[in-house]
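LOG
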Amino acid sequence: MTSASANENCLGWAARDPSGVLSPYEFNRRAVSSDDVLLDIAFCGMCFADVLWTRNILGTSKYPLVPGHEITGIVREVGTDVKHFKVGDLVGVGTYVNSCRECEYCCDELEVHCSEGAINTFDGIDVDGTVTKGGYSSYIVVNERYCFRIPENYPLASAAPLLCAGITVYTPMIRHNMNQPGKSLGVVGLGGLGHLAVKFGKAFGLKVTVFSTSISKREEAINVLGADKFVISSDEQQMMALSKSFDFIINTASGDIPFDTYLSLLKTAGVLVLVGFPSEVKFIPGNLILGMKSIVGSVTGGTKQTQEMLDFCASHKIYPEIEIVPIQYVNEALERLMKKDVKYRFVIDVANSIK
């Protein structure tokens, strides 16, 4: 690795305070070590986590903060010990860029659950003590273990949202056997995560029903995403008619939902998965116990499963619905994201707009 590459300025967009307003920012990436990959960023998806961190909603943000953890790009340089990537490869980086590599979870390639805490792609503390900075930037340096191969002919722009939104719904679906053809799946919420849950469900051969509070999403759910059924979740009659009819339900919404109502829709031994973040989980215990039902949670996924998901999407031609925007539009896009005014994921065209 040449010193010129290690020391050159990285161009990014950063928030300087809890207003969350981003503006151009130059900084230096850490030097590339023997097992690192340096990739020029082509695209970066926009996640609601970008809103939370830039606005310090969780109270832990370290400014200046460069968000973005749905990253795709092209390898520019590799360290001397890198085995799985070469210059010119198409690659991706997700929600974390390092972990202890020694605990039981890292050994099982579930690094996101690292006992020492996985190092987040942005606003984490890197191995050299510096604060990590994400994909709203021109390039990034990452250990090859946390870098993923984008399958040949899969568009880099489409691959970006898979590195967070995609793996967030894919992981629990695989873990809880939500990939059995003929079984029934309910998807609560039809945003960045929900629309991918529908696409995965159909690819697995499931009968997919979308639950939403907005009738305006019906046509999109059925005719564009391929859902089998659409239900207005606030309509008590529609909900009651579906009692004990679902093997699985995945809740992608972060707003509060009536858990007892959704538990009543599950068959015996049915599973309700939470990947959104409601403010509370409240239900009558009997509604869980008497039907031998489960409520489980999940975040993103380990390195092995992330690569598996990327390959699955390529082989089954699963593509997120995206709106590509230039880096100069990020503040407007974040505002729209907060208002749920996007179908269904913003993706920043970093390579062609950052200067």
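LOG (cont.) second protein
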Amino acid sequence: MAKPKPEYDRISELKAFDETKAGVKGLFDSGIKNVPRMFHYRPDKLDKNSSVSNGIHVSIPVIDLAGVKEDPGTLRNIIDKVRNASKSWGFFQVENHGIPLSVLQDMKDGVVQFFEQDLEAKKKFFTRDYSTKNVAYNSNFDLYSSPAANWRETLFCLMALKPPVPHELPEVSRDIMIEYSKQVMQLGCLLFELLSEALGLQPDHLKDMGCTQGLGMLSHYFPACPQPELTLGTTKHSDNDFLTVLLQDHIGGLQVLHQNQWVDVPPTPGALVVNIYS
């Protein structure tokens, strides 16, 4: 008589994975052929709706910020576009936002360099203590509470209100993290001005409320997956900050929910995706 299969012990699998501090990159490097069960999503949770609704292709608005500080007419036009996009979508892309393409590329390269360095170098930043750490590396912040883990690992850095001192940041990507966060903070201040005016308020209204004081940087890394049909890199979610500025790499996969329809957001060179909390 065959022995009954042992009951699946999810907690033990999660702990064993977490204690390696190697994340999904460690699983990829080990050459595994089968995705561990802790990453499996039920088939009904792997809904991959197309971006085409009723035969009509839809895409999030793209707003060109060129001339926003130079011409009052251009400014009014941009404010109208921000208002409409925020009201109807909650998402839009911005072009000619002032951040050099070289900085965007260096930031993407810096993320890859951090996650692809030796494990011992990354382990120094491994923690699940977000309350006292400005810099935290791990795989899945909600590893022990989510129904299934995402095939992803993340470096979190609190760059403002209380920024880390330079030596607290990973050496391999330190300089570009500081420069990129400085540039994004400037863009964020501009976006808050535009949103304030789109609401019929004074340009500094949201800034005076403190909306521009904090800045958190999340750098995600998605290693190749041997069975991508069984899991997801990032599940559906709502960002919990006021404003998200997202830099995509060339691979894509980002979708946003619009009128109960998942819409693809293909990577656009030089563009940044803006997500307004709602």
